[in-house]
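can u do me a favor
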């Protein structure tokens, strides 16, 4: 029996939700370490703050006020937003006051920015097509910025000829996640979902190719996690 387009879209969205949820869980080892040691040390909240705003924008994009039939975009970004806020809260609790102030300022900026986007979209654009264009473009810009994060890891891989700090499972998950959401976007004919996820798929392919190239030259016995640049560790987990 043939499966109709709507069913395929729904199944792709469900798979995308599951994989994305797994990716949202990936920073847990870092957060557990912070809680146990009751200190953030050199860890930075930047990726989690960035992902928080990203989830807010995609959540708004999925609402019926902006696009139709995007429940699965709403569900995963609602869950992601709650998780990222939890991660940021942990950073806030165990950070010194200077970092707490910075976290507070960034969160205030994100709330104000999101409020401005919502206000402009709802009050100055009255068709779903125009609203989807405005919010979708903002989402694409944020996703492109976030996809620059793995470049730090890739640069280190090429420099050290080691994939120790670029876990295969995370790279594979990012690749599959990009493929699934790209399929979802194609089935829904949603360009704004397709563009960032196509870029994510490409990023995943590059990481997997680099893993294959540099796997044999990696010194797995070397224990230098404490000396690893912090942004590299966070790129692997965020």
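np, heres the sequence
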């Amino acid at each position: 029996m043939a499966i109709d387009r709507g069913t395929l879209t729904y199944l792709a969205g469900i798979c995308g939700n599951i994989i994305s949820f797994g990716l949202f869980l990936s920073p847990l080892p870092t957060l557990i370490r912070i809680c146990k040691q009751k200190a953030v040390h050199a860890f930075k909240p930047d990726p989690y703050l960035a992902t928080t705003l990203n989830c807010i924008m995609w959540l708004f994009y999925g609402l019926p006020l902006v696009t139709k039939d995007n429940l699965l975009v709403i569900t995963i970004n609602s869950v992601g937003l709650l998780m990222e806020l939890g991660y940021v809260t942990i950073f806030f609790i165990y950070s010194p006051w200077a970092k707490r102030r910075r976290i507070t300022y960034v969160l205030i900026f994100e709330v104000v920015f999101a409020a401005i986007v919502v206000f402009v979209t709802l009050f100055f654009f009255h068709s779903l097509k125009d609203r989807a264009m405005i919010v979708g473009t903002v989402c694409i810009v944020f996703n492109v910025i976030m996809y620059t994060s793995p470049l730090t890891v890739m640069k280190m891989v090429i420099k050290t000829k080691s994939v120790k700090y670029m876990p295969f499972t995370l790279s594979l998950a990012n690749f599959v996640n990009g493929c699934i959401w790209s399929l979802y976007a194609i089935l829904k004919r949603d360009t704004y979902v397709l563009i960032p996820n196509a870029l994510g798929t490409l990023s995943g392919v590059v990481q997997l190719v680099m893993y294959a190239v540099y796997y044999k030259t990696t010194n797995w016995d070397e224990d230098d996690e404490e000396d690893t640049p912090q942004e590299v560790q966070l790129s692997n987990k965020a």
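DSSP finds ten helices and no strands in the chain. hope that helps!!
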